[in-house]
Amino acid sequence: MSEYSRDSRYITTRITADGRDGYPVEPGRYRLVVARACPWANRMIIVRRLLGLEDVLSMGICGPVHDERSWTFDLDPGGVDPVLGIERIQDAYFKRFPGYERGITVPAIVDVPTGEVVTNDFAQMTIDLSLEWARYHRDGAPALYPEALRAEIDEVNDVVFRDVNNGVYRAGFATDQDAYEKAYQRLFDRLDWLSDRLAGQRYLVGDTITEADVRLFTTLARFDAVYHGHFKCNRTKLNEMPVLWAYARDLFQTPGFGDTIDFVQIKQHYYEVHRTINPTGIVPAGPDLRNWLTSHGRESLGGRPFGDGTPPGPPPAAETVPASNGAV
């Protein structure tokens, strides 16, 4: 059986309040490098927004299409990141690890003074923004990883990663029928489980938005535009799963979530880069995404999106998704 296996050998160096790995939290020292197309990077964009770290941790945005070497800063003037002065995120990896042979991925955090990558361990990175960077959170920042709920959040995150976040890739990149069908079944079994869980509660864990909701949302946001067709996850579209569709719209319409989603770049990335799946590179014109802004009715379940906190303000002008690329 030829089953897709994600390379999970990440750079596990951490940026911490006490600097125990040699990289202390310092405003302005680091640059978060993302691509709006990437669901793993999208998590960092959302968490950074919710916690109000825009002025503390700068963000470089790669374009949606990359080659076999790495993501590039082709959206910037001259194709060069204005802070790091590089054309490819690969350069920051090689600066710290010459001849680096593992995956050159986003999100990644780069130490600006040295130009060296610090970490690309995406699962730990969002949690560290919540815990290690707490001193610099905005007033009213939500508790995305509250201590009392961490065990349950971790448990939910584990199954969601395995069966949903990574599950769509296991279906999409399977190279034989049996591997594909097993991944497909696991995905939709888990989506049904999530639908049952969310039928009576507004959020995945507790009554506020947590890290668990961020991690599920970035997959759901890409489901109909990409995974349903491109990855053959086509039992049902998201908008045909009533509970998950309402849940996803609820989050999408929450400040910090939908305003990070660039549907045009998402489609460009998957359909243009994955030529083994889509040899022509043609990007589909659909689906119609205006229904993301329709009423979801999830308020009836109660819940407090930001707990005792407040919504984030609008994104900085330089980080705003063009209206034409969103759900207008």
UniProtKB/TrEMBL annotation:
The keyword Oxidoreductase applies. Keywords: Oxidoreductase. It holds the Pfam family GST_C_2. Residues 300-328 are annotated as: Disordered. It is an enzyme of class 1 (oxidoreductase). Residues 146-273 form the GST C-terminal domain. InterPro entries: Glutathione-S-Trfase_C-like (IPR010987), Glutathione-S-Trfase_C_sf (IPR036282), Glutathione_S-Trfase (IPR040079), GST_Omega-like_C (IPR047047), GST_Omega/GSH (IPR016639). This is Glutathione S-transferase family protein.
